[in-house]
Amino acid sequence: MDKAKITFGTREDKKALEEHPVFAPKFDADGLIPAVAMDAETKEPLMLAYMNAESLQQTLALGEAVYFSRSRQEIWHKGATSGHVQKVKEIRTDCDQDAVILYVEQLGAGACHTGRTTCFYRVVDLEKGTHPTALSFTEADLSFDPNSVYGK
Amino acid sequence: MDKAKITFGTREDKKALEEHPVFAPKFDADGLIPAVAMDAETKEPLMLAYMNAESLQQTLALGEAVYFSRSRQEIWHKGATSGHVQKVKEIRTDCDQDAVILYVEQLGAGACHTGRTTCFYRVVDLEKGTHPTALSFTEADLSFDPNSVYGK
User: Fold this and answer.
1) The whole model's pTM is what?
2) Mean pLDDT per 10-residue run, chain B (152 residues)?
3) Contacts of B123 in chain A (CB under 8 A)
């Protein structure tokens, strides 16, 4: 899409937000909406990050995921440093339009800065009753060396 | 797990949060963490909601999804009204532990209060370049009558 022309609908009543075919995303008090990136092929979740209106517009214009980094307080074109760009295949929103899901093709070795294919590489131990609650690592093993990609 | 015994780890340095097998979830300034529920069978996303520490502890204790309703500002045991309980099969967290994903068995007709199987029933039109940006409805059609389940 032409970025200059990307606009969002106005948020009217609840019924309209739920049933109208108009994208009217809700940005919170900090101007952000949560965005979950999932692998378009495997349906595995890759990461959860946030977008502001500008980064969502850039995502639509570029066809690549652009987030807003809360820690750095800046627009964050995923993959700009690492080459691990996320090509957007589909974007969904939910009933009240306060969340988005991106189905992406993850380029490069993985989505996570720890060197893994996904950020969701740990599972909560539901049965063990450990204190504090324990995590187990999944098979989403190190797929690249983060230092060689991101530097120290 | 025994709810009385459910505790979370303390959030230490970044490396520990990423690499230690201890669940130390980050709750934001409002005491909340985003939680994405996905169908354990189909891997389709069902909804994105929020949990506070208490609702996360209840989720672990019950084995059913318990959220915190931001609009009502109260603990929200999903399905308490509708019968559409979410049986928790797996919970994952991400590298910095500020998000969780729940793989659930969705009981009843669907997750969404609009009467659909999923809240993510609309897709952003990436190609059309409409102003404002348009949404298309997916095949996640009405699977139940919300009025008969939730009342008016």
Assistant:
1) 0.92
2) 81 94 97 98 97 98 97 96 94 98 95 93 92 89 67 54
3) 90-92
* CB within 8 Å: B8 and A122: no
Within-domain flag for B139? no
Domains of chain A: total? 1
Q: Count of CB atoms within 10 A of residue B12's CB?
A: 11
Whose tokens are 């559409």? That residue is B84
Asked if residue A144 belongs to a domain, the reply is no
Residues of A in contact with B88 (CB under 8 A): 126
Cα nearest neighbour of A115 on chain B: B95
Which residue type sits at B18? E
pLDDT in tens, B55-78: 999 999 999 999 999 999 999 999
CB spacing of B121 vs A19 below 8 angstroms: no
Q: Which residues contact A4 (CB under 8 A, 6 or more apart)?
A: none
CATH of the domain at A73: 3.10.20.810
Query: Which chain B residue is nearest to residue A118, measuring alpha carbons?
Result: B94
